Amino acid sequence: MSISVLSIPTVAAKLGRTAAAGSFLSLVSIFRGDITRLSVDAIVNAADNALLGGGGVDGAIHRAAGPRLLAECRTLNGCATGAAKITKGYDLPATYVIHTVGPVGEHPELLRSAYRSSLDVAKKNGVRTIAFPCISTGVFGYPAEAACRVVLGAVEEWLRENGGAIERVVFCMFNDQSERIYSEQLANF
Ligand code: ADP
């Protein structure tokens, strides 16, 4: 069963904060669960350079989207670290998948670039609602707390620079540790 982005409260609503319309906390949500269930315009895939599927969130997205996703990915000629490419979502509830490649290990500029490139591709394709997994924090080994600081800074800055382009950014948490880290860092924002 798919989950509508509108049913996920913004961080401001969750914290009971009055946040001005268009402010960062009014544009972002935390979702705990499987990103492949989200009915958003685009989900972001933490892919590798080949863009031919893999483990973790990449494997889950390919399984849920079906074989047509891999067929389209084969036409893309891979993706550089920090860049992003878009495909259709096929059997997913999401319309598009934006494939990005985060760094292996702690490289803040490349992680920042993966999020910013994904948002740039989203904007170019008229995406209004987008969900991100915690890119690079699984097999790629970026420490979760440090990654979260980079991510929130990068997304806040991008939304400020691109006022109104995106309606909602969902941070998708797949384990207790990331959920705690994002909740803490967003509450202090
Ligand atoms: P990377 O290679 O970029 O580290 P991984 O897929 O190994 O990518 O992990 C990235 C993050 O995605 C991790 O925090 C992991 O817990 C999370 N994750 C794994 N499966 C899913 C899923 N189905 N939905 C959302 N997040 C997921």
TrEMBL record:
Residues 15-189 form the Macro domain. Pfam families: Macro. This is Appr-1-p processing domain-containing protein. It comes from Linderina pennispora. The lineage of its organism: Eukaryota, Fungi, Fungi incertae sedis, Zoopagomycota, Kickxellomycotina.
